[in-house]
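User: I'm designing a mutation panel for Calcineurin-like phosphoesterase domain-containing protein and want to avoid disrupting the core. Could you give me a predicted structure to guide residue selection? Please restate the sequence first so the numbering is unambiguous.

Assistant: Good idea. Sequence first, for numbering, then the predicted structure tokens:
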Amino acid sequence: MIPFRNLPFKIDEVYLTSDTHYGHKNICSGTTTWPEDHAGGCRKFPLIDEMNDAIVAGINATVGKNDLLIHCGDWSFGGKDNIQIFRKKIACKNVILLQGNHDHHISRAHVGPQNLFTEFTQIGFYQVESLKFVCAHYPMAIWHQSHHNVPLFYGHVHGSYENVGKSLDVGIDNIFKIKQHYAPIGLREAYDICQRKPAFLESHHDEFTN
């Protein structure tokens, strides 16, 4: 069985986010070059600096310096420099990054950018106090212990996917739909949202099997 690694934080000290895309001009409505049928999904900022500042402000107003921020991938755009620029602007000392499809500048470097994070990995199996959960960049239909009500937190889809089972898109675009501001969501709130959903049990696993 895959173990869930205990993280030394309290439930109300852990926050989740994803797909910040810091520095990504095409996701900003004022600077995008995307065609109109794609640009409808852009963030409504006239300037990319305003978008970046809003992302940083939302994180720093929500996550304390000694808390834990779990980021489910697609950290930044605009080259290697933005990886460090964005990280330096975040007050939180403890940041776990799950690798997203746009994090190639981080994944290709065995030192340097990866050292900016407490952990850099593909998928995380975590426990905080009594809560077990899985984190990854991509959504899944079935994941480790999903049939035992363990939730999945993911990103990638920017609020465009009707998720399956007890899972939640924690990307800032989806959380904006829920809370009307660009900021991480607390682990407790995210967990409660997932537990109100039915589990997806389309396999030989169910609540009675392991």
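For picking mutation sites, this is relevant: Residues 48-62 form the longest helix (15 residues). The two ends are 9 Å apart (CA to CA).
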